[in-house]
């Protein structure tokens, strides 16, 4: 027996289908617009206005879950009572919206006065009379985030199944768009807080280094004056004061240099520099301290001048910080070697020591700001953990690279590469 096809001759049925298709087409168009909007307030406003318009209702609203209280709140609503609605919390138990949220199913109520689930507190607060209601869940990957409601058909008719399909289609687009907008808003807030924390840190470093410098200079001045006139045990005590002041001075200098680098105030004053001259400055600066620790300091440099184009004071600072690290962690009677190796288009400056070395898992972190291999509660060496971080900033500003190599307890090798430039040797090297 063949199935019979009954033609749709009734004008009312044809009009209803045409209206449904038209509304679905509009839902698709609105969905595309929602997915391109990340402004949450604008997004919610578009959803409720479109829902009320598509279903021909007196009002529409979006209720979202407040994770802190476990209640629903009005995130958006049509009409003139928006501000009052924002203050109202809707419980999950004893409300139609709560039932929709808990079950994840749409609900049609033709006459709310006969439904015990209707939460009358909302109507009483804003002097509104809810007669009929259609609500659907806002779901993202099977997780309900809220409820989309349409209230009171304007034509006096009841909500139909076609209305449910329209509002569900609207809710599927709306839920994803709302979730995306909230995630973006949370990310922006997190970035803002990180920026605030970074600014506070930079301000703290700037203020602390500035405020510490003046009293430290007074301490150093008086200690030096007394040292010149002291004798015996007093001399030893004042030497200890001066050594402590020198350590504090080094820490303040590191804080200041890091602050300049972070604030972008460290403009490079470039000139042609001879690498051998930079190494000679390094020997003059660190030779006495290495000798005081009975360390052997060796320099291996090629005879032909090698030129780099950079800021002398900044490169000196980077090399000095790396050398400070080597002298600090190399024991008495240890050996430190500085090698200069010329490559095509670049020069390598390596600082090699036979100290305790760096654990393999720590090699990638030694250039992080404030990071130290030793635990801050048990460490034997001072400093803020800024020297290598500053060296890295300076080297990279000059288009170079710095990295560390170590065999654990077999010493360390810090390697710096910088681009070289060709300079005619017609005049005195700079």
Describe the overall structure:
The chain is an alpha+beta fold. The chain has helices spanning 11-34, 40-55, 82-86, 96-103, 120-126, 161-229, 233-263, 275-292, 312-329, 387-397, and strands spanning 57-66, 71-77, 89-90, 107-109, 133-140, 143-153, 271-274, 296-300, 307-310, 335-343, 346-353, 401-406, 412-421. Strands 7, 8, 9, 10, 11, 12 and 13 form a seven-stranded mixed β-sheet that branches. A six-stranded antiparallel β-sheet has the order 3-2-1-6-5-4, sandwiched between helices. Strand 12 and strand 13 (412-421) form a beta hairpin. It is elongated.
What's the rounded overall pLDDT mean? 82
Please give the number of β-strands. Answer: 13
Spatial separation of the terminal alpha carbons: 105 Å
Gyration radius, rounded? 37 Å
List the helices and strands in order. HHEEHEHEHEEHHEHEEHEEHEE
Shape: elongated
What proportion strand? Answer: 15-25%
The main sheet comes to: 7 strands, mixed
Main structural class: alpha+beta
Which residues sit in consecutive blocks of at least 5 with pLDDT less than 50? 375-382
Number of helical regions: 10
- Helical amount among residues, as a percent range? 40-55%
